[in-house]
């Protein structure tokens, strides 16, 4: 691994003071000036400073309740309620949308376990990005068990949207339907035929 130059360190410090959107672009520029060895060095530095990375690597005491190849689940030591569990991706990603693996699997398993053992419902919270109140630079998902009269408030005031706004937004945010692969189509046809045979 290769150390960073004084100039690169200074640029990194300046970068951290910029607004988030600018940070990403500037970081890309800075990274393009670095050698692979320097990028590796930078990553290892970031990892050492990240609380969740240190938890993943057992360098910080924890109550681990779940683990698979991509995620761990730990008990929050300052819980919103009894059994509050945090799902953490093993790889260092700041944003939840950067995670390639399917995080619905740990969510389902932990939610089921909490229901079985604590008879609690859950609120599932992801704060993605600074404006959403994300506090640490490593993505996470909070599973908060809910009990009757638990005094947890996850509410917002609803506003009225105009027809015009909704129409415009629905076009802007539209994600086109993925075309199913050939095998899935064949399955669909088979299912349909089986249904047809039922008198
Ligand atoms: Zn991390």
Protein model, in words:
With 199 residues, this protein is α+β, with helices and mostly antiparallel strands. Among the domains are: 6-49; 57-146, HIT family, subunit A. The protein has helices at 6-15, 20-32, 36-49, 51-56, 104-118, 163-172, 182-197; strands spanning 64-67, 71-75, 85-89, 121-125, 141-146. A five-stranded antiparallel beta sheet has the order 1-2-3-5-4, covered by helices on one side. Strand 1 and strand 2 (71-75) form a beta hairpin. The longest helix has 16 residues, at 182-197. The mean pLDDT is 89. The site of zinc ion (ZN) has 5 residues, from helix 4.
Key phrases:
single chain; 7 helices; 5 strands; 199 residues; 5-stranded antiparallel sheet; HIT family, subunit A; alpha+beta; binds zinc ion; 13% strand
What would you say about this model in short?
By secondary structure, the protein is α+β, with helices and mostly antiparallel strands. Helix content is about 40%, strand content about 15%.
Helix segment tally = 7
The ligands bound in this entry are: zinc ion
Major sheet: arrangement of strands: 1-2-3-5-4
- Give the tally of β-strands: 5
State the end-to-end distance: 70 Å
- Assign the CATH class of the domain at 57-146: Alpha Beta
Helix percentage range: 40-55%
Q: Radius of gyration from the CA trace?
A: 23 Å
- The succession of helices and strands, N to C, reads HHHHEEEHEEHH
Shape, principal axes of CA atoms: globular
CATH H level, superfamily name of the domain at 57-146: HIT-like
What does the main sheet amount to? 5 strands, antiparallel
- Helix/sheet category: alpha+beta
How much strand?
5-15%
Unreliable residue stretches: none
* Average of per-residue pLDDT values: 89
Return the CATH architecture of the domain at 57-146.
2-Layer Sandwich
CATH fold-level topology of the domain at 57-146: HIT family, subunit A
């Amino acid at each position: 691994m290769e150390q960073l130059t004084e100039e690169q360190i200074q640029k990194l410090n300046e970068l951290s003071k910029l607004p988030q959107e600018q940070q990403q672009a500037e970081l890309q520029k800075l990274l393009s000036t670095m050698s692979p060895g320097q990028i590796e060095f930078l990553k290892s530095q970031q990892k050492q400073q990240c609380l969740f990375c240190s938890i993943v690597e057992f360098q910080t005491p924890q109550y681990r309740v779940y683990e698979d190849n991509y995620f761990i689940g730990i008990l929050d030591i300052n819980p919103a309620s009894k059994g509050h569990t945090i799902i953490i991706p093993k790889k260092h990603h700041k944003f939840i949308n950067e995670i390639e693996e399917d995080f619905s699997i740990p969510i389902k398993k932990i939610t089921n376990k909490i229901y079985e053992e604590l008879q609690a419902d859950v609120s599932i919270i992801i704060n993605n990005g600074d404006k959403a109140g994300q506090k640490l630079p490593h993505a996470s998902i909070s599973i908060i068990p809910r009990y009757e009269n638990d005094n947890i408030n996850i509410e917002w005031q609803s506003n009225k949207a105009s027809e015009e706004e909704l129409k415009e937004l629905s076009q802007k945010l539209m994600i086109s339907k993925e075309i199913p692969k050939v095998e899935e189509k064949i399955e669909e046809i088979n299912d349909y035929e089986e249904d047809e045979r039922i008198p």
